[in-house]
Structure formats: C-alpha cells, structure tokens
Amino acid sequence: MTESAYQVEDTKRVFPLNGSKQTTTTKLSILDASVARFAPCGAIWLYDRAESADSRDPGIFKRLEKSLRQTLDDYPHFAGQLRWASKELVEGDVNPRYIGRPVVIYGGPEDPGVELVIVRDNRELSDVVPSQDERLTTKQVWNATTFPQNDLLAKTKLAFSSLTEFEGLPAVAVQLTGFKCGGFAISIKLTHCLSDAMCLIQFAHAWAAQSRYLFGGNGSVTEKRQIPLFDPSQLDQHAHLTPTGPDPEKVRIARALPMHRYDWWAKDAPGYPPWAEASTLGTKPPPEELARVELSPSSFPPWPTWDTAAAVEPVQIRFKAETISAMKKAAENSLPESLSGHRVSRLDATLAHIWILINRARRLEDSKEQVYIDFTLGVRNRVTPPLPDSFAGSPILLCYVAKSGSEAATSPIGSIAGSIRQTMSLFTPDAVSAYIHDAAYEVSPQRLWQSFLGSKHTLVTSWVRAQAYEVDFCGTHRPARYVQGVMPRMDGIVQVMDIAGTGDFDISVCLEKETMQRLLRDPMLKAYGF
Questions:
Q1: Is the Cβ–Cβ distance between 3 and 120 less than 8 Å?
Q2: How far is it between the farthest Cα atoms of the chain?
Q3: What global pTM score does this model have?
Q4: Residues 343 and 225 occupy one common structural domain
Q5: Per-residue pLDDT tens digits for 64-110
Q6: Could you tell me the residue range of the domain that residue 86 belongs to?
Q7: Is the dihedral of CA 474, 479, 481, 483 positive or negative?
Q8: Does any domain span residue 478?
Q9: Tell me, what CATH number does 216's domain have?
C-alpha cells in the first residue's frame, strides 16, 4: 500500500470502563503455557457500508471504542501485563514448576491496556476483498495474495511476541479501518496464551453486543451478555497432580497419543536455523539446572523439509453446502471396514479431500516417507466435567494423522476421513487429563513443538460453528462481507470457516507457490461439484 492510501489517525491504550481498584495476579493454565510461542490469535472482520454504519461518520469509531472499553469490564485481564511466573508465586503449589509458566497481572495502575489504532484507507472495500456474490460465482477460488492482511492489523508488538519481551507491552491490539466507500474493518489480535479462536470470537461477540446497544439496539445489554469464565485453575485441576510427582501410568497414556514431540532446544538437529535459538532463551532453565534434570523423550524437528524462504501463495476455496454433502457421502461410501464404527462429519470429509489434494500437488504419489496432517483440538468439551464455551484462555492441543506420502495422495476419501475421526476419538477425557498431567512436569512448556510446517506437514485449524460471520457490531442484521482468520502465510497452513448459516465452508490454504498452482489445476479439486 502506498503511504498516501493509508493514514493512522490515532493510537492509544484503552482500559476497562469501570476498572477494578485491586491488582490481581493469575497464573495461566498448563495448556496456555504450551502455546506461548505460537503466533498471535487474530481475526479481521470486513463490513459493507450500511445506513446505520458508515465509517465516514466519526461517531461510529467513537461508539466502537466506548463499547470496547465496556467489554473490557468483563475481560479486564486482556488489559493486563503478561510476564513469566516467579519461584515465589508457585511456592506451596502441588507442582512447583514455574519456568515458562505465564501469569497476567491486571487491575492496577501499571496495566499496559489494549492498544487501539484507528486508520483511514482511501481505497474502496471492493478493491480489497470480493463480495459474497463474487465468492459464490467468479471468485469461488480466490487468490488472496493481494489481500492486505498486515495493513488491517495493528502493527503493535505484543507481549511474548518474542518470549523475552513483555514489559510494558499489551497482550491485545485492535485496529479500526475506515474505507473510502464507508465500509470498514475491525481486527483483533491477542497473545495466544490468553486466547484461542473460541475465546477470541466469544470476545468479539461480547463486544458486538455492547456495540449494538450503542447503535440503538433494544433492551439492556447487561441482561443479555455472556460473562466469560477466566479461571485457568479449573483446567489445571484436570491434571490431577499429586505431591509425589508424575504418575507413570498417566505419563504412559499421554505419550502414546499421536502428538509430535519436536524439540525446539535441539541445536544439533539437521538444518537447525540460527533464528530458532533466540526464541528459546526466555523460558530455558539455567545450565546448572539443566545439568541436573532428565529431559523427556523428543525428536528432532524436520527442519530440512521446510524451506522458510520459499515463496508461498494463499488461496481461499469456497465449497458450497451441496459439494460438502457430496464429499461426506463419498467418504461414508468408501470408509474402510476397519473404520466402520466411526461416523465421519462434513468437516472430516472436507479436510480429507483437501489433504489428498495437497499431497497430490506435492507429488507424493510414489513416496514412502511419512507425511502428517496436524490438527488443533479444543479441549473445553474434552474434559469431565466439560468447561463452558465461555471459558477464557487457550485450552488447545495439537495431534496428527500420519500416512505414507503415497497413501495420503492416493487413498479414497473415506480412508482419510475415517482416520481423522479415529484420531480425534482418542482424545477422551482420561487421555486429555493424562496429557495435561504429563505437560505439567515438563522442564519448560515451550520446549516441545506439537506440529510443523513445510513439505511433509499440513497444519489445520477449524473455526467451524464459531459463528464468526455472525458478529454484528452495528445492528445491521447482515453477516460480514468477509472474515479472515489471521494465520501466518507459511507453507502448509489450512484454516476452515463456515459461512453464516449457509452450510458452505471457506477454506484458506497456503502452500509453496508452484505446489499451489498444481493443486488449482488438479481436476480432483472439483470432483464433488463446485
């Protein structure tokens, strides 16, 4: 974007409207700690101009700012200071590990707040993103290389963006962008240990509810709002820790799960990149402590399979509801007898189709090497008793399905979809509890990496049923023109989003450029209709 097209009008820190007068320190959960290294969790919502919502009216962004501050009354920790736990903080805990365990301190005068950036963009919204009608017709496959994701996100450095930097840095940044036509964009990005996608969208819906009230909505928003549950200890209770240390049986169960254990600290791994070491220093115990401990089993990250300098191409693929139904039916009809007890979902079938296409595009039909599809799984409903959807934090883990390259590129859709469902079924409440138990005793929660990218891995995140398109800030009763879940543009990233009650899926796929071109030319892309 040229400098003249983009003007930052204001940058400020905002705080809860009715802030607490008491400082609170909360230790984040074991699972929150395990994702502290992840890229920020974020999303961008783009809206067409409406009679009641024209961004050329300065009052719109003022109302959005006020409603943001009102929403922070329920999420005060979003305005707080993230830092690493101290030894004193965990004194008396059943588990005394504190290195790499984040805490958030909030409610005091030193809170960094939430950074709010207001931007004016002299382009038309139609120059930035296609309309919903176009996505259903001429741009059902849309090359999103020109989508200005970074322009629509605050440039703010967040706490833990480098694990050694956090003092004075906010954990949340919001940007409001007004376009020449009166359309606008709202983006939110959060340090990942404070929020997964579910928590992010819950926050967006809460903010939208407050905002609609200021835009003339009926009734009292206080009667309707859903209060988040911010109590990380409720998740940690499922680890069932005892003063006697790790339970060997729980450790055995945890380590039998299909989860990668790639070691970030393994400098002797082939292809280890120079930039990786700096990101470990903030949460690595001193050498004298490391000399006394035995590290848990791990493997080398497959660095040679990931060319981080390769050009990549992001593409959005819109699959209509009838196409997804056809995929699901094909998966059910080709389910191997060994997997016949598993009921595949629309999402299972769609991911199977996409993964097969990716492996074909990577020319793996004759490869005997293992390839992986890595999944992000939320655990709110995978513990007993389950945690509510309103549970704030990042209670996620990552697992994988492994196949030989040839199998992953040539198997029937039912074989892959059934394997995906079978893997997900392994994560029972007992298994998740065992995993949290084992993770609690790690020397540092950031040492092990549960996924990878590059030519042998595909990393999937699903936002299906999160109702991202239904976030309505201005009471227009219309879905967003477009929602972009913010993911790094790297080889092997896949994200799935559903579209506002249509039954359609919009699949974001980012691959090495030539691989992507082969995928788009593959006749199998449209095998189930389009």
A1: no
A2: 67
A3: 0.95
A4: no
A5: 999 999 999 999 999 999 999 998 877 778 887 888 999 999 999 99
A6: 3-235
A7: positive
A8: no
A9: 3.30.559.10
DSSP annotation string for 335-402 = --GGGTT----HHHHHHHHHHHHHHHHTT-TT--SEEEEEEEEE-GGGSSSPPPTTB-S--EEEEEEE
Q: What is the DSSP letter of 502?
A: S
Q: How far apart are CA 527 and CA 357, in angstroms?
A: 11
The answer to whether 6 and 180 are in contact (CB under 8 A) is no
Bond prior to 286 in cis (omega within 30° of 0): no
Going from the C-alpha of 309 to that of each of 174, 273, 456, the distances in angstroms are: 29, 12, 16
The DSSP line for 467-481 is: --TT--SSS-----S
Instruction: Please name the helix (run of DSSP H) or strand (run of DSSP E) that holds residue 84, with its range, or none.
Output: strand 81-84
Say whether both 64 and 104 belong to one domain: yes
Token pair listed for 227: 């209060």
Q: Are residues 322 and 204 in the same domain?
A: no
Q: What is the CA radius of gyration of the chain?
A: 23
Residues 6+ apart with CB under 8 A from 269: 263, 300, 301, 303
Q: Exposure string (b/e) for 447-467, b if CB count within 10 Å is 16 or more?
A: bbbbbbbbbbbbbbbbbeebb
pLDDT tens readout for residues 431-444: 999 999 999 999 99
Rounded to an integer, what is the distance from CA 334 to the centroid of its chain? 31
